[in-house]
Amino acid sequence: MTEKRKEKGKSAHQPRASVTFPPKLYGTLETLAKEKKVSIAWVVRDAVDKYVKDQSLQSDKTKGNQL
């Protein structure tokens, strides 16, 4: 199994998560993924990446105000 992952250019270990969405939100994710011609997983990873970056920026601003 590890050999197959390496063949596809993926690392041997990528953490996984299972997420349950309300039906309406999942439908929206499906629509976005189809429009962008990507997987739902890609849409979710992209959204989480942007969210984490935004939170990090907000945290930096808060720290700056405390000085």
Keywords:
single chain, 67 residues, mainly alpha, Arc Repressor Mutant
Please explain how this structure is put together:
This protein is mainly α and 67 residues long. It has a single domain, classed as Orthogonal Bundle (Arc Repressor Mutant). Helix 2 packs across helix 3.
How would you summarize what this structure contains?
The protein is mainly α.
Q: Can you lay out the helices and strands and say which pair or pack?
A:
Blueprint: H1 2-7, H2 23-36, H3 40-65
Helix pairs in contact: 2-3
Strand content is under 5%
**Structure summary, number of beta strands:** 0
Shape: extended
The biggest beta sheet, please? none
Distance N to C terminus: 51 Å
What CATH calls the topology is Arc Repressor Mutant
Q: Radius of gyration, Cα only, in angstroms?
A: 17 Å
Which structural class matches the secondary elements?
A: mainly alpha
Encode the helix/strand succession as letters. HHH
Give the low-pLDDT segments: none
Number of helices: 3
CATH architecture: Orthogonal Bundle
